């Protein structure tokens, strides 16, 4: 896992927000989610171990039908999250049809957490009761549910760069964070403002 991808996927501040952004490239709007993107995300957010991630990657070859099914459901969940968070940012009503993909995951993922030792650290890994792979989204759906319950207190925002579209939770003390990434969108804005000032 490269340093870059783990930083990028974590700029949302909350798991469900990071997933709504996935695959996140600050400053560029919408990207199709590929099987590889999905596995990279699951690994970067520590939902699966590196070892499990490697095994998942090969699934698109060994069992393309299963991989495709999981990817379709992942994309449906991600797009629903984007609708939900977009409505929260604009303080609009949240449609029931966007909640359904979240509830679907909450419904089917029964299991428990187990302590796993990896890279010298302890972390919790979700162990599903049933087979299938939808448990991969359990923590994401739970994170989304928490954000919905918090409502405005979750401080969910969208990047001020209109061509970006990434969401983030503004956990800053002053609640005045404007950019998904200061280094990308914030800087682009600064450069543009500077150029405008010089031109006039
Ligand atoms: Zn941005």
Structure explained in plain terms:
- There is one protein chain.
- The chain is mainly α.
- Helices cover 54% and strands 11% of the residues.
- The strands form two sheets. The chain has a two-stranded antiparallel sheet.
- Helix 4 (50-62) packs across helix 5 and helix 5 (64-89) crosses helix 6.
What key phrases describe this protein's structure?
200 residues; mainly alpha; two-stranded antiparallel ribbon; 8 helices; 4 strands; 54% helix; disordered N terminus; binds zinc ion
Question: What's the structural blueprint in terms of helices and strands?
Answer:
Blueprint lengths: L2 H7 L5 H7 L13 H10 L5 H13 L1 H26 L6 H13 L2 E8 L2 E8 L9 H13 L5 E3 L8 E3 L12 H18 L1
Antiparallel strand pairs: 1-2, 3-4
Helix pairs in contact: 2-5, 2-7, 3-4, 4-5, 5-6, 6-7
The structure holds zinc ion.
> For this entry, what is the oligomeric state of its chains?
single chain
Bound molecules: zinc ion
The biggest beta sheet, please? Answer: 2 strands, antiparallel
Runs in which pLDDT lies below 50 for 5 or more consecutive residues are 1-7
Order of helices and strands: HHHHHHEEHEEH
Structural class: mainly alpha
Distance between the termini: 45 Å
Radius of gyration: 18 Å
Helix content: 40-55%
**How is the largest sheet built, in terms of strand order?**
1-2
């Amino acid at each position: 896992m490269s340093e870059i991808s783990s930083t990028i996927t974590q700029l949302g501040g909350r798991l469900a927000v990071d997933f709504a952004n996935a695959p996140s490239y600050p400053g560029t709007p919408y990207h199709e989610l590929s099987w590889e993107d999905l596995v990279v995300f699951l690994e970067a957010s520590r939902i699966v171990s590196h070892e499990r991630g490697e095994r998942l990657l090969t699934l698109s070859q060994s069992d393309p039908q299963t991989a495709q099914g999981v990817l379709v459901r992942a994309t449906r969940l991600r797009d629903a999250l984007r609708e939900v968070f977009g409505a929260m940012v604009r303080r609009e009503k949240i449609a029931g049809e966007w909640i359904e993909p979240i509830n679907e995951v909450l419904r089917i993922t029964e299991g428990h957490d187990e302590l796993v030792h990896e890279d010298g650290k302890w972390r919790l890994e979700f162990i599903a009761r049933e087979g299938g792979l939808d448990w991969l989204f359990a923590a994401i759906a739970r994170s989304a549910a928490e954000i919905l319950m918090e409502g405005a207190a979750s401080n969910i925002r969208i990047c001020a760069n209109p061509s970006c579209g990434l969401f983030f939770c503004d956990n800053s003390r002053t609640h005045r964070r404007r950019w998904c990434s200061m280094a990308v969108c914030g800087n682009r804005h600064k450069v543009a403002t500077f150029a405008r000032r010089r031109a006039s």
